[in-house]
Batch of 3 targets.
Target 1
Amino acid sequence: MHDSATIFFAFGLTLFAGLATGIGSMLAFFTKRTNTGFLSVALGFSAGVMLYVSFIEIFVKAKVELQSELGEVYGMWATVAAFFGGMLFIGIIDRLVPAEENPHEIHNVEEIDSLEVIIKRETPEQKDRKLLRMGVFTALAIGIHNFPEGLATFTAALSDPNLGFAIAVAIAIHNIPEGIAVSVPIYYATESRGKAFTLSFLSGLAEPVGAIIGYLLLMPFLSPTVFGIVFASVAGIMVFISLDELLPTAQAYGEHHLSIYGLVAGMAVMAISLLLFL
């Protein structure tokens, strides 16, 4: 069992990562142009951190834990199965969300100006229908996507606070363009920058909520074997997020090479930080 200080620290990191959507909202409403180069490098950096830590640290820790409990052969099979099970889990979740309501769809700050023109052409009835649809689907999409991310951050922080901090920073960077993606369509539906900022900021709460629900569901069954399986699944989830969301988004925002430079930098920083805390 973990002590209360570790649990609160893990929860705080998850809350920090989730509320980074507010940074994206501020970029959307307090800047005139999207800094696509910065976002491309930052998202590549985030992917580098998550890929390196998943393969080098989390997968290995899960394997050691499961092999000590189940034996060398069965422990390795369980680790690999849980790893791909995590990928399958987040993949199914991703397929459940319609593309047009997916919070990871690309949006730029520049869209605000063009949306203001479109809004003026619509009738109040059209706006109301869009608002209802947007509210329901956006809330569902954010909750579905952020649940496993919150669980990943929380679980990693419980196992190793330094590891949890690195993953929280990576998830926070990932949530910045998500904040833009959520703010732009909500502003389109409500014509209110304040509502768009508030809802986008609060959408990040899905991550700590996901962490709490996941922990409460797992706590009665928590054992070295269960923890090893969850940890291997978290590695799979983070690899999927990096390959399916972070890198494609990074390349869509900027040049291909910028995202790769960020990727290598993220891996290097993660490698050095792990070496320093050996």
Target 2
Amino acid sequence: MNFSAVDVSQTKSATEIVFESLRQAIVKGTLQVGAPLRQEEIAKAFNTSRIPVREAIARLHQLGLVETRRYKGAVVAAITNEEFDEIFDLRTLVEADAMRRAVPIMTQATLLQARQYHAEFSRSTKPEDWTELNRQFHCCLYEAAQSPNYLKVINGLLDRLDRYVRAQISLTDGMQRATQEHEDILLACEAGDTERAASLTQAHIRDVKASLLGYLQTRRDEVQHQISTKSLPA
């Protein structure tokens, strides 16, 4: 199974370590949709009992990252079309409002840190790093709002979407478009223009949604074409 395992036999936070390792593997796409989470195998990899593994999987289930399937047990969950729409629509509301709260009290230190994350994102050539750098950029700005519950909700929504967003960024112009939109958002923050920063954030999220929907539809069409081709008589 694909995740970063460590020996947690002597630690009191085994559940947290197992949970975070599995969460990262799911968010980054290392564990694909439908991949089984076998407790015995995971416990052996982490050199721990099944109890912290079971607790970690239960937490992942609460976050919507894991689902239980008949005859298969716990597996990495997919996102339905309805959930996809709901999560993105919720992001546009919550993240724009977080920006409205943040910009008026944003410090120079926050802006410099966001500028650094923006630069790292724009220079990165490793797809596996893109979603984390993207999250660091956005959440650095949102953290300035000093609203921890907003940030908790936002991180939970990003956890559900990051594996798909990385695919979207990997599209032909995905990285270039994201970099430019990040620059526009950051310039609005640096100018102290609250409403422009919030509006650009909403537009950015909606753009990602539209681009990702197009990508997913193309993938579905390709799969359907392959199935149809294979079913044709020789």
Target 3
Amino acid sequence: MQIDHALILCAGMGTRMGEIGKKIPKPLWPVFFKTLLELQVDYCHSLGIKRLFLNTHFLSEEIETHLKSNPKFADVIMLHEDPLLDSGGAIHNMASRGDVNYTGNLLLVNADQFLFFDQKYFTDALSALENSRAALFGIKVDKSAKYNETVLENDLLKEIRKTDGSYDYITYSGLGILKLDSLDHVAGISKFFETVANYKKERVHFVVPEKFEYWDFGTAEIYFESIQEIYHSLKENKHSRLMDFLQENKALEGNVDAFFNDELRSVNLEGNGEFFANAIVGKGIVQKLN
């Protein structure tokens, strides 16, 4: 089996990115010298996926302009949503296109998160997909993490629930492979675990890597912390799967000290060396960190 398509979810409102998020859509926030969107396309290409889609809603004109500015995006199809369809609706909107027609396997990717693990886990997921609707990648998180717990039985999803914070648990990472064949079409707005990976009606398999790297850029504060960690790793010559990925895809080729100032704890999204203490700077906005 293989992965035939990828859908990069880019339609969020960016509310967790603060005032700058009202001007720059989250997928276009840079990780030093490449945008999150560019890096997600690189990630999909590294897996041999050639048919790429992304959904948009908020600030879609900026994303469209970005796509047209770079030949790398020549094979990326933008699907604008109005109204916002939620993740289930986004998948059905893409899968119901005439050139897809609910055929093949789809990699689902969040624009603001990266999960790295050994290639064998993709092989395991594709094998599990032979008799499942979905093979989703779960990650083990600390009890203090504020995610939903996914309750598994023989590697199949049985329940999604809140935890009381008393134990470590497994949560859905946002990365998964879906079998589109014979998926019942649902039009309009719908939720992922109701109309796509409905574990109450179909088999939804979980693959949980023992060793992995999970990187989140989903809020302004978490984005800053991730950028800070990357900067320190670069300066200290520390290797990781993410660092290797960024190096391979030329995201760190430039003056990193004009992008991040460790002493002032400041990021300049335009990489022009203008910093303010405890702040993210971009689009003429100085956004203070909490």
